[in-house]
Amino acid sequence: MENDIQLVACTVENEEYAIDIRSVQEIIRLLDITRVPHSSPYISGVINLRGMVIPVMDVRKRFGLPEKTPDETARIVIINCNGALVGMLVDSVSEVIRIPRENIEQPPSCSSNVNTDFFTGIGKLGNRLLIILNLDNIFEIRPES
Amino acid sequence: MDMTQYLSMFLEESREHLQKLNEALLDLESSPDNKSILDEIFRSAHTLKGMSATMGFSRIAELTHDMENILHKLRNDEIKTSPGIVDLLFKCVDALDSMVTDIANGGSGGLAINDLLAELKAGGLSASPEAPGSGSATDTLAEESGAARSQAAVVTTVEFNEYEKNLIKQAVDQGFQCYHLVVNIDPRCIMKSARAFMVFKNMEEIGEIVKSIPSVQDIEEEKFETSFDLIVISREPEETLRKGLVSITEVTEPEIKLITGAFKSLQGTALQETAALETEGNREEVAATGEPVKTVTDVRPDDRQNIHSPVVSKPRKSQTVRVDAARLDSLMNLVGELVINKTRLEQIGRSFQLPELSETLEQMDRITSDLQNVVMRVRMVPIDNVFSRFPRMVRDLARDLGKEIDLIIEGKETELDRTVIDEIGDPLVHLLRNSIDHGIEEPAVRVAAGKKEHGTVVLSARHEGNNVVIEVEDDGRGLDLDKIKHKAVEKGLILSEEADELDQSSLLRLILLPGFSTAEKVTDLSGRGVGLDAVKNKIESLSGSLHVESTPGTGTKFKIQLPLTLAIIQALLVLIEKETYAIPLSFIAETTSVLPAQINKIQEQEVILIRGDVLPLIRLNEVLQVPRANIPKEEEINIVVVRKGEKRVGLIVDTLIGQQEIVIKPLGKILGNIPVIAGATILGNGQVSLIIDVASLF
Questions:
Q1: Closest CA–CA distance from residue B671 to any residue of chain A (Å)
Q2: What is the residue-averaged pLDDT of chain B?
Q3: pLDDT score for B3
Q4: Based on the domain organization, do B88 and B146 belong to the same domain?
Q5: Facing residue for B670 by CB, picked from A47, A51, A139
């Protein structure tokens, strides 16, 4: 059991991504997002999570994927990133899965469309391939140039 | 014993005592013969010594001990109070301060104080070589208190009222014993009330406490010295009580007396006795029955003076509770949530139009605003917390610069939100330094100008509506407008032809610009590259404003205006396209509306004429990059006129929604500093709305 890691699986643009469950505080349905002017282009805006104002990042924009209006299946994964809460807007969240550590491989050194700095590894589960996200790199937002 | 749990308390109390020492030394400097000030200094030094010794900070204990020696000699007129001695004591306080800071930063407080110690010893010795060495002061004290205590043991008596007497009589009838305990607590104990609480707890397990002197409430508030009296009824033998007391840390051997006899003897003649005593007066003395065990009247007040005649501590003036600031913050947050939900409920209530509901809502509205006021007041701290360190600073500065300066502090009891208090210290230090360094002239110059030799700096605080006004005013040379003009042109801040057109107040405002400093020579004090613009920025970041007034030759006045609190503010909600924004009411001068044709352009800048004045306009939808939503626009254009200082700007918005109380929430560090946005708030409908940072628009 200790050799397994638990991941929250979600999809963005038909690809399966996975987030270490220890970083996930909760998963919520889409709320009204208030746009924040002059913020980083990956930030959709802020939401009201039970009285707290929390920024939400659009994973599609962060990965440079085509934009899409969120639909019924869209979810916001609330991540506790070193004490600060951030939401990640994804197309859908499918399940929580358990993968043995030995089934996780290094991420490929190059990828056609998404910056590989955003991944910590690839998890294999049967035929499925899950891209495990490197949250620290994803949330490291450099000021707009 | 593990002392780490007391560390924060130790630090806090040490700082209080250091502050007291600083203040008292300043007083001593102005009235060197005042013995009561010496007593006060002695008291603080002594307390510090006790606390630090208990906590194991031997260097502090050592230094305070030697300070006590000097103070003792001063008190006994063995040496005279001289500026040299006061300076030496100031140095000690500074050393203590750095030691305490060192401890706060995780050190052991062990700084190099050998020179200071030598100086202290020399200071004492040179003045009175025959004086006994170290320890004299405390020894005396210990003896005194010892003597007084044994005296207390003999004479203590307790008065009972009718109710207590009956209670004890009944208990004695049922076979209980009645004891009179004198509980002694170690004088070095930091948390006397906590120890007392444990005493109460232990005694209540063994028996019942009938009476305590002083009252339980006073004991809880530490309004006692090192001992208090308890009357306990119990079936247990004396030894059990003794054990129950001694098992508590820092409680020394108690004195226990059995006084059951007094009540037994009362029993037989109860009726007559009571009647007789009642006619005598409303208080009956048990002592009157003449039993040997019985103790004699309440002499504790006198007694206390005997013990501590040199160290009488004043009773605390206000009853206070120390609360962790984080708890207050969370309380404030919760109240904020309540306000938000109340607003939400009101919106729902309006759509249903139930008279009963709206009545209840009105009630709730009142209660929430009362609650909010109370919580806000709880978070308020007197500005004295900041002001109190200035007299010392001004004294040191004035000395270094060879100037003579009286600092007058007014309105130090003015209360401000804790968040504001924490931030306002540095700007004030800067302004004071500025006045002392640049404002007040050297004594000779002052005399030549026909002024009194002593310069005066007035630091004042007062409430003005929902704001606090803090002023730093000096009677120095004032600001030289020509010099300001030249400097500003020279530094490229304005063009010389522009400068000629500026009026006096506009010229004065130039000194608040970044990169401006009039000091001709860079001194240790100011001119360190942090100009008045830093002060101005700090104050504006607190939603306040800074003004300068100056008359050449007679002085300069800096006026700071700050909001009382930063957490909940009144704001005007406006709609821009589909987005709702909040504009803090404190910045709003007025709202108006104009027809599109009334907007003119001056050099690409849109302006309108409002009562003859030209008002520049800002289109908020452009500044805020609001996407076009193609909502049909009204004919008239709504304008919110905001002001900062004397400047005014008109903000073009689509719709005015209305005024509302909003709770400011931070945007969080992931978003970082967003220009034009000061924070966020949650509206009644649960939506997040952004607060416009009006100051950044100018």
A1: 7
A2: 76
A3: 61
A4: no
A5: A139
Q: Mark whether B180 is an active-site residue.
A: no
Is residue A64 within 8 Å of A114, Cβ to Cβ? yes
CA distance linking residue B656 with residue B573, whole number of Å: 6
Domain assignment present for residue B317? The answer is no
Among candidates A48, A55, A139 on the partner chain, residue whose Cβ is nearest the Cβ of B687:
A48
**Parent domain of B678:** 568-697
DSSP B81-135: --HHHHHHHHHHHHHHHHHHHHHHTTS------HHHHHHHHHHHHHH-TTS--TT
Max mean pLDDT among B2-16, B88-102, B574-588 falls in B574-588
Of B23, B62, B68, B540, which is the active-site residue?
Answer: B68
**A52 vs B contacts (CB less than 8 Å):** 665
Which of B434, B441, B547, B661 is labelled catalytic? B434
Phi-psi map region of B450: left, alpha, beta (phi>0 left; psi -120 to 50 alpha): left
Q: For residues A42 and A61, give the distance between their C-alpha atoms in angstroms, rounded to a whole number.
A: 5
- Cα B616 to Cα A73: distance, rounded to the nearest angstrom: 47
Residue B685 is part of a domain; what is its CATH number? 2.40.50.180
| B434 catalytically annotated | yes
Residues of B in contact with A48 (CB under 8 A): 682, 686-688
Q: Are residues B220 and B204 in the same domain?
A: yes
- Is pTM beyond 0.80? Reply is no
Strand spans (E) along B189-265: 207-213, 227-234, 251-258
* Same domain? B189 vs B285: yes
Show me where the domains of chain A are located. 4-139
Tell me the ipTM for this assembly.
Answer: 0.87
Residue B653 Cα, gap to closest chain A Cα (Å)? 16
The total of structural domains in chain B comes to: 5
Coil, strand or helix at B201:
helix
Tokens of A62: 């962060």
Q: How far apart are CA B398 and CA B395, in angstroms?
A: 5
> What is A4-139's CATH number, 2.40.50.140, 3.40.630.30, 2.40.50.180, 3.30.390.10?
2.40.50.180
Q: CATH code at B153?
A: 3.30.70.1110
